[in-house]
Amino acid sequence: MPAAAVNGTSIYYEIQGEGAPLVLLPGLGCTHVMWDPQVARFADDHRIVTFDPRGVGKSGRLTGWRDILSQQADDLAALFDELGIDRAVVCGVSYGASSPSVSHWTIPHVSRAWSSLILSATPDRVRSVLPHSGCCCT
User: Fold this and answer.
1) pLDDT digits 0-9 by tens, 18-27
2) Which residue, 6, 49, 86, 117, is most buried by CB atoms nearer than 10 A?
């Protein structure tokens, strides 16, 4: 069971395939398993990283309710370091799109993302994070 010790907790992750890194962030309360169909499709030409965020699945528990999104974003950055990933395409769905990958991860760590894909994020959250993005929701 691969797990990285980061920021005082354990983050469970899986890596499949070879090629340019593609990191997939799950929706609220979901584990890495939600991405299995996409992993099967993209692992032929990408290094796919899926993981369970802090407080979910096989990862360590949450330690309090303050700054959860920032903690999870910092965990992702530390996981990049642990796995030797300099830059990656980051794709999040639902909570994974509207929270850690966009506002709490991509913006402070923008130099580490080739691109970020926002899938099914709530319009209000995307508007507050990307007010001039040209997104159809703004």
Assistant:
1) 999 999 988 8
2) 49
